[in-house]
TrEMBL record:
Protein name: Acetyltransferase (GNAT) family protein
One Pfam family cited in the UniProt record for this chain: Acetyltransf_1
One Gene Ontology term of the molecular function aspect: acyltransferase activity, transferring groups other than amino-acyl groups
Residue ranges occupied by any N-acetyltransferase domain in the UniProt entry: 2-187
Domain of life: Bacteria
UniProt-listed SUPFAM superfamilies: Acyl-CoA N-acyltransferases (Nat)
CDD domains listed in its UniProt record: NAT_SF
Entry keywords, A to Z: Acyltransferase, Transferase
Length: 188
């Protein structure tokens, strides 16, 4: 039985480890080195704080048999600049990294930043259930467009998104890697 709930500050360690599964390359680019432990700590710090892209406030935890099996982080695309600022500030002050990432989202969509499933729970359809949850709660009930980026090197993820009703609407660069930009539009 899956349980979806808002993340708390206490979930930061578990959520950070899951997020690293989904975005380790980007985190390594952010912090300037390929180090899983430092990358996880970077995310954990941000998850515990409020008002940033990776905050617990923007995260839903998925539990399977009372264990954290996955998570998803999403936010209103119009808020990207204000939510990104604390991330860039920490990168500059704590990692001596000054980066100018491209905008992965924009006004008019709720952006799904990450979907991650623990290796212990993969193959149980949890990623698909997370998408179903987001479509139901954000797109259908709130009548919002959902957006996400999919790596060209991940055709299986793209197929899943297409099965769920997402369509390619363009391409976007993120940390100098090109991605397909996909959106789900609720039926009028």
């Amino acid at each position: 039985m899956l349980n979806f709930r808002k993340a708390t500050k206490q979930d930061a360690s578990s959520v950070a480890k899951l997020m690293m599964l989904a975005m380790d390359k980007i985190v390594f680019d952010f912090i300037g080195e390929k180090n899983d432990e430092k990358g996880t700590l970077f995310l954990e710090n941000l998850i515990q704080q409020e008002n940033n892209q990776y905050s617990y406030q923007n995260t839903i935890v998925v539990e399977y048999d009372n264990q954290i099996a996955g998570c998803t982080t999403f936010y209103d695309g119009v808020k990207l600049e204000e939510l990104r600022k604390p991330v860039l500030d920490i990168l500059k002050s704590s990692y001596n990294q000054v980066i100018n990432p491209q905008d992965e989202t924009q006004a008019g969509e709720i952006y799904i930043d990450t979907i991650a499933v623990s290796p212990d729970f993969q193959g149980k359809g949890i990623g698909s259930k997370i998408l179903d949850y987001l479509i139901e709660e954000i797109a259908i009930k709130q009548n919002n467009v959902l957006g996400l980026l999919v790596d060209f090197d991940n055709p299986n993820a793209k197929k899943l998104y297409e099965r769920k009703g997402f369509k390619v609407v363009g391409e976007k660069m993120l940390m100098n890697e090109n991605h397909e930009h996909m959106q789900y539009h609720p039926q009028k």
